[in-house]
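Sequence only, no structure available. Ideas?
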Amino acid sequence: MSATDQPSGLAHVLSQRPDDELVALLGARPDLASPPPGGVNVLAQRAMSAGSINVVGEELDLLHAAILEVLLAATEGDRGSRARRAVSDAAVRKALSGRAAAAQINAHLATLVDLAIVWREDAGLHIAGHTTAALPWRARHIATDQAPRTPLQWQELLDDLDDGPREVLTALAMGPSVGMTNDAGPDADPARPVPRLLAAGLVARVDRQLVEIHPTVAQLIRGEPPLRIDDLRPPPLPAATTTASALGGPAALSATAAGAALELLRETADVLDSLGRTPAPELSSSGIGIRELRRIAKDTGLTAQRVGLILELCAAQQLIAVGYAQPESQGYDAARIWAPTPLADAWAHHNPARKWAGLATSWLMLTHRPWLIGERDAEGKVIGAVVVQSDFAAPRERRQLLESLAQADPGVAPSIDDLVSRTLWRRPRMRRRLTRQAAQHTLREATELGLVAHGALTEVGRLLLAGPADDELTGAMDKALPAPVDHFLAQADLTLMVPGPMTAELAPQVALIAELESAGAASVYRVTEDSVRRALDAGHTGAEIVALLHNHSKTPVPQALTYLVEDVARRHGTLRVGVASSFVRCDDPATMAAVLRSKEADAVALRPLAPTVLVSPAPLRDVLDALRAAGFAPAAEDSSGALVDVRPRGVRVESSRTVWSSNGDRPGRAAPTVEQLATVITRMRTADEVAGQAASARGTGTVSARGGGESVTALINLAARSGRRLRVEYVNSHGKASHHVVKVALVRAGKVIASEIGSGDEVELSVHRITTVELLD
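Reply:
I predicted one. Tokens follow.
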């Protein structure tokens, strides 16, 4: 069809579709609905525009691309113009026979028709002039004589090349796949490298100056799983045979996922605590630098790569943010820092499953690739964490990889190459971005979040891909997590073995009196002098600590553990430090004399007021640290003599952005609902009806009036009395023109109250803004 005929042809086909099919079209191609089209002709023009076709091309698989190439080849004239004849379904099936099943071709053709990329008219298939925008490449690679070659045959051709052509192919494979040359024309010297490559089919001609490398050849040169064009069927994934049983089945995968989730939550708390104690300065180019990541990694015992992932997740959930420290935080007044937000304090008290759900869904929607942190970008700069730049292709690729993994049988772990091949068949446009390395790192991150276990998708991973409600996802992880325990096993080596996640009440108490030594499904904590002193500093007495051990231990508390607590408690608080700026008091003059003899006393300028009282101009925290460094065990007290907890609370900054919900929706990006799309279709139908009514009115002498005044008012009143429909052209207060076909209900005070024909919506129109009215039958 000609360029001028195409819109009306597709428009005619779309006008025959029922409303529910048009709603489905707008749901699949939401760009067509914004702004709402002013009729079916506008909808058809948008559907055939290069920009819209390019967008929908992101969702097409390799067989879709093959069908479009066949249609383009069949309708392209000698000079690139579209032939006027249609293409039959049988011709498409014949062109792809042997490479895809007839049923697959028919199903994919139906999808292209549903998406309005292809339409049926005159007993054949038609395409738009910009259909090439939907292809994953610019040249023809599937509808050619070389397409049936296998990767082995392509490799044999590569092995036979000499240096000149190989250098050209390597440049195209590693850089842009399309290159400019003067040897692309048919009159070029056949001995030159490019004509030789064209003759061998290793590159294809885009035009007289551009050539494009064959996608399978490019994958082979890069050492990636080849995108097979000789077989257009979906690449197979391993079946559920011995692989699934070796992994232990869905229950074992869920248990592994639960363990990974608990480990992630514990490490996230550690990173938040470390960042609260020592915030990270913001880089001039935004984000957190690699040196700060390494510092946090050393402080928490994690790898810098793991810290980078956790920081990205925390930033997405607004548990950390960049800004100025809150007023109570000292020492960070003039610098922008990355630190926890007040949301982090509330997050710490949430249910573990709820905390995990927020982190997991944030990862799925991340517009960064955490595994690239520490690598260098195209400009040679080291990539930091939580930088401003966003890559909106990252969440799409992450989801596509996991959806390919979901196509495997439950409990089956495909190889990386199988998974990449399957994903590239589904989305061939990702062939340059979804490398073997990218897939490996993405699966590693998914494993660390509990979405993948032993290379197979877990139950919570499958559920997350389905886009569940918050409560549904949280409930699924709740079932997978082991029941929290309120006990531990006290052992003779002064350790506490906790056989599972602790209850919210027990966990902070154990973390206060003991140091975490080994984390996992069963954690091990060690009780030390420092940990006991920390609990005493927080206001607990030795008797309370011993009682905690006896009340929650399922084994007898070892005598050595009791002795340790009592010994530290007996020495703790012999010295009392208060605010004078600071003072030190003690009932034993000999101990005070020993304090004054220490070199730390000079560092904080201690001086005696009495044999049992010393004062210092240094802050209370500094005096405590100096005395402990000298080997003493002081305790802090307030003005009443009661023990106080002076541990630092950590720096906080205010969050300035909206938190993503756990279903991954970003603010302002919600997809239109079916009801909203149905309203768009109704208004579009109304606009078409208005246009049709206007056309018929001009041919049948329908009464009309323009320019306002008494004639307009008279027609409106006549329509109200007679119940006849009225076509109105209207300009609102912002100067926007609109058309309405209405049934007038009431006219008063210069206003027309009417209902829209078709939608039934009530409208209120000011008479003085009506430019034209037509009385319809």
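Residues 1-7, 78-83, 658-668 have pLDDT under 50 and may be disordered.
Hope that gets you unstuck.
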